[in-house]
């Protein structure tokens, strides 16, 4: 019968076994797959009032399309259920539905873009086929390939101020339409306007003359009276909205408003338009960036040794561009430097010349905002 081993040998054996077990555990953990990066999900959405067409793609499968009600929370629930461990990026085209969905997606902690529809690249027959499903697929594809650049999304404060500015623009259109309708009625019935009244300025004397105009039968008079009531209503609304717009910008954006007003040609409404539509001009890197946004950058076509400009770019903010063209005409009268620049190009096409002049107030606008220094009218020696 063998003698039992001393206790020290059992202690050494247990330590050796435990060390070997620990080493095998480390090796097994090192061999287990580790998640170094989360898979990514790209969602393209074609947004409409009553429904959304959604297309989901990843790096591993081509995607799935489905329709859903226009509710960001429902899309969040769907993604959390079917793609729980994915990094999610969404994109949709800018349109009438605004930025509410974009702000909801960002509130969920996801990357979100609002893209310009003209920036979505279409291949071959995709240019001739347009459905909601194809649009959603194209958006998700551009997002996955990294070719999508989102437009600037203003903050809620600036966006709601923009709505008041656009309301004023709608009233201006209504005002001109009613004026044209009343002028058309006078022309139709052969009523000649007194000398000095046949212009775009409707003075109080001209309005009184319209009120006193006599027709052969009362029905035509009733038509004119109805038009004049609409004219006076829209005229008063336009004045009220313009006053509120100027007052609000002067109080809440006083510094930038007064800097813009220091530039010759830029008056109250033009300054309000610049504050409302482009927003904070400090976000533009340089004058080329701003000119491309406004639409005062020339189009260029080059092929080999042929090089020509194709006029103003079709990509533009047409309302703000028209404001800067109007400001250029005013600046020519008030600023000697601008007047001299205009005279250098006299004899050429007037419209092409005024576009070149309009680039000057645009560059001054960016300069006074970025330097926060009021503009000083130059003196020609």
Question: What features would you describe in this structure?
Answer:
By secondary structure, the chain is an alpha/beta fold. The chain has 13 helices and 7 strands. Strands 3-2-1-4-5 form a 5-stranded mixed sheet. The protein has a two-stranded antiparallel ribbon with strand order 6-7. The protein is globular, with a radius of gyration of 33 Å.
List keywords for this structure.
single chain, 381 residues, alpha/beta, five-stranded mixed beta sheet, 12% strand
Give me a quick take on this structure.
By secondary structure, this protein is α/β, with parallel strands linked by helices. It has helices at residues 7-31, 72-82, 100-107, 132-145, 156-188, 204-212, 218-252, 254-261, 268-276, 287-294, 318-334, 336-344, 350-371, and strands at residues 40-47, 52-58, 64-68, 87-93, 111-115, 298-303, 306-312. The protein is built from 13 helices and seven strands.
Query: Strands across the major sheet, in which order?
Result: 3-2-1-4-5
Radius of gyration: 33 Å
Helix content: 40-55%
Strand content: 5-15%
Report the biggest beta sheet as strand number plus sense, adding barrel if it closes: 5 strands, mixed
Number of helices: 13
Mean pLDDT level: 87
- SS elements, strand count: 7
Order of helices and strands: HEEEHEHEHHHHHHHEEHHH
Measured between the Cα atoms of the first and last residue, the distance is 125 Å
Given the C-alpha coordinates, what overall shape results?
globular
State the secondary-structure class: alpha/beta
Poorly predicted ranges (pLDDT <50, ≥5 residues)?
Answer: none
